[in-house]
Each structure stands twice: as structure tokens, then as C-alpha cells.
Design brief:
globular, 58% helix, mainly alpha, single chain
Length: 506
Amino acid sequence: MTLSRVLAGDDARESRDVSPGAGSRHKERARRLPRAHPAVIVVAGSCAALFHQALHTGLAGDVFYQLAAGRWMLAHHAVARADVFSYTVPGRHWLDEEWGFQVLLAWSVAHLGPVSYWLLSAGACSGAVLAMAALARRCGAGWLWTAALSVLAAAGLSVGLADRPQDLSYLLFALLLYVLVLARGQPRWLWAVPPLLAVWANVHGSFLLGLAVLALELLWAVAPAPAGWLWRRQGLPVGPLALTLLAALGATMLNPRGPALLGYALRVSTSPQLGSLIAEWQSPDFHSYLLLVVVTGPVLALLGLLVFSGLHLELGDLFLMVLLWLATLHAVRFTPYMALAACVVLVGWVPLRHETLKPGLAAMPLAVVLCAALVAGPHVPAGAPQAGTGPLATPVAATGFLARQSGRVFSTYWWDDYLVSRGIPVFVDGRTDLYFGTGLLQAYVDVSDLAVSPGPVLARWDVEWVMWDEGAALSTYLRHDPHWRVRFEGGGAVVFQRARPGMAGG
């Protein structure tokens, strides 16, 4: 027997001897590979869809004055307390309830770059979706139903998705609901509520909603359970919950304005003037199929469940959802909150008793592929103003022309925020509450709607320039007014200058 055959025989015997062990190691290595339920693809896709929306929407509206205010505070190392952006009320007391978001936005843009706009909008909303998914799993929902609720949450959040402090407010609202669910099993989680409300009060005035949620929880904890009702009770301990509510109320006063912020936020939230100027404070436009489904879908589903099934619900959660649904019918801005509250109510439904899908190795790679497909491809450059024409687009070229001129400018409520970011003083802007009690908002509406002759109002404020939507009635009026000349047109905006002796025609 040759040496080669001897060695070959030894190798074969050694291979046969070690093959069982090698197979065990291979199986053990396979078991260690990350596995996930296929529903993770839907949850991740819901978050990626929010980023897709953000990546294809340019900046417009409030974000510009928010950025300008944040930069001013970083430059002066102080919280803004008086107006520095208008020529109508310079130096007027300004209670800036959103100062925390403004500083965070300005700091992030300066240090992380324009991608911060996406992180603070779609990133915050995605965090709210993940909080709802975690809440559903904590309450015992199956993975498929968790995925369905994630879609509902993302659809509702997409209605309010923008580069504004509201997106952080949605995240904080979702976290509060999740913490309260955790506290039902372990009351020590209530310690997380006051810090959360302290942050909320320095970001957005909707912290009042957080206090209302805690008050409702305390109400259901104290009130006796109605006998014979279908709703089960799973209230929190009354004592710790009452202390949490008091601590949260005190935490909201940890802001630059102290207790005055509470009354101020309430006055602003209930002001009738907001509905006349701001679309999000008006009733929903059900010509949008997405909005129609988000607002009516959960309610119809809930009614069907109550009538045709023996579903047991949390009375407090149901009451909160109904209140937010009524609020949404009054003002579309409450839609995201209502959708999140609906997720909490519907989490108790178990549409599938047994899920046949099992965790596998392909779920995570497929989730990554789906997310990449949704966020890849052409999109608006980070930090770019909204392009196009019309009253919602940002008039970049026209504003650039005005930046090279001198004299006061009268422009639209929506465009004035961009003027603020370019250092041009304005008549009014997105800080609506700043102008309460001055008559300026009504004067603006009257001129915009041609309810009065624009000339006297513009002359009173020594307005030199008017920048307006080229298709609006005011633009048509000024084109035929001999006291005004067209000096620039582009991007859907037209700029008029007050006619002076010797000025050439436009």
C-alpha cells in the first residue's frame, strides 16, 4: 500500500470521526443567527414610509422662524423673551413655548447638518411608531396585529409630519401611553412620567394633553367600576397615580416662564383666531382619502367590534380616543394623537388566535431591503425649501430679490416665516399668539381678502414692497392699482413696489 493511500485512508477515517461534531457546531451556529418575525418587515416599512415622505417634502412655513429663533438664542445664550423679527410689534413680550425645540433644531443643523430636519421629523414619528409596537407586544398582541397597528400609527402620524415641534410632541405622547401601560404591571414606572412632562413643556404647548391623560387615568382609578358593563378595569394605584399627577404638574413649571406657561398654553389652544389663519386648526378635509380612512376607520372598526364581538376594552383608553376623535373633527391637528390613542384601544382585539408565520432568517434582510427601497432614489436635498409654485411653495427667488432691497415688506402669513429666516422684518408670521390683541391679524386678513382697501393699511405701516401669490386676488388688485408697480415675478410669486414720482412702469 502506497503512502498516499495510507494518508488518504487516515483522512477519510478522521473525516468520518469528526463529522457529527461538525454538524452540531453548524446547527448551533445557525441557531445563533438573528431571527425575526415577518411582521418586523411591516413595522420597519411603516417607519421607512415616514422617512420617504420627509425626504420628498421641502421645508416650508413655521420651520424657518423656528430655526431663526433657535439661532438667535444660541448666539445670545438666552431664551427669547421679546419679538426681534417683526416691524409691527418689535420688543413686544413673547412667551416662546417652543424654545426647546428651536434650540435643538438650530444646534442640530449647525453640528449634524441639514439631515437634522429629517431626524427631528420622520425620526421622531418613527420613534412613536416603535413605541406603539412595543406597547402592543407588551399588552399581548400578536406580531401580525402589532404590524397592523403600526400601519395605523404611521398613517395618522403622516398627517402631521413636518419639521416642527409637533413631531416631538407625538413621540412624547406615545411614550407617555407606553409608560402608563408599563406602570399597570409595575407602578414604579410612574417615576418616568414627571421628567417626560418636563421635557414636553419646554418643547410644545400640547403638554396639556399629557396632563389630561394623567387626569383621566386618576379619574378611572378613583371611580367605581360600573357593574355589568363590557369594559374591564385595570386601573393604576390611586395614591401613586395622584402623586405622579402632582409631580408632573410641578415638572411642567420647570420652564423659563414658570407657572405662567400653563395658562398661556390653554389660552392659545382655545383661541378662535387660530382657525381663521391656520389650516391645521380647521376641520379635516375629507377629500383626502388617507385622512378619511385614518379619521373614520378606527371608529367604524371599534363600533363593529363592540356590536358584533365580546371584546373587552379599557374604559379610560376608549374615552381618551373618543375625546381626541371629537377634537380631530374640530381641528385636523389632533389626527396623529387620535390615531395613537386608537392603537391603544384596539390593541385588546385578537383577530387571529393562532399565527402560522414563524420567526425566520429572511425577515431582517427583507426589512432592510424594504427600508432601503423606500428611502433610496431621488429626493429633495436635505434642508432645501419646498419647490414649485403656489401659496405653499417657498418663494426663494422672490425673497432673494427682496433681500437686496430696502424698505418694509408685506407678504403672506405662510411666506413671512421664510422672510424671517432671511433676516427680513415682517408684518405677521407663524408666531400667531404674539399678535393676539394687537389687531394685526385681523388687518392682515382684511387686506388678504380685500375686505378693505389695501392702500390705507399698507401706507399706515409704510410698506414699500408686497410679495404675494401671483394667482391671488390681492395680486390682481395691485396689478391694476397705479400706486404699485411689478418689480419681480418668478416661482409663483410676484413682488410689487410702491410707485414713487419718476419711477418707470413695471
